[in-house]
Task: structure prediction
Amino acid sequence: MKIAVVAVQGAFIEHITALHRLGIECIELRKKEDVLKPYDAIILPGGESTVQGKLLKELHMFNTIKEQIESGIPVLATCAGLILLARYISNDDREYFKTLPVTVKRNAYGRQLGSFHTINDFGDLGKIPMTFIRAPYIEAVSDDVEVLSTVDNNIAAVQYENQVALSFHPELDDDTKIYEHFIKLINTHCSN
Ligand code: GLN
Result:
């Protein structure tokens, strides 16, 4: 199994380190040629969605990645990555992949709660540590989206088909349960 991590901006190294700890091979997607290489899944890291979206378009990587997601390649999106996937962004006119039928709000926790850490239930994985940094939250989901975690009444994690999207940063905590959940999803997708 090989996981491709979008590496144009933001916290991509931390995802690669976490995956290496689990013995998973990674490749970095930095330029147009990279998105044509073989891989089984994609990680969209946290960072700044506006910068990442702009760079992916300028570097001619955007359309190929969008097509791969639309074709069902498993994706794990964290924070800015969630914003890139969302069909609607309630407080920004910019548009990106739009493959995940949710409405997301950028920088949703306001200034006082710019960054915080909590431990919260996540699907059937039990308690997970969650680090939020100028995080978005999900304001609305379409019926077929599964809500995996809600923090203070705000949706913080969802799954829709092969897309798992989180408003927090699993790569900044030692817990690997979310990566294991994603690896299971990739194995199921590869064996179909
Ligand atoms: N605030 C960032 C954005 O709007 C997301 C923050 C993050 O990825 N930690 O893109």
Remarks:
- Residues 177-191 form the longest helix (15 residues).
- Residues 104 and 138 are 4 Å apart (CA to CA).
- The helical segments are 12-21, 49-58, 62-70, 80-85, 177-191.
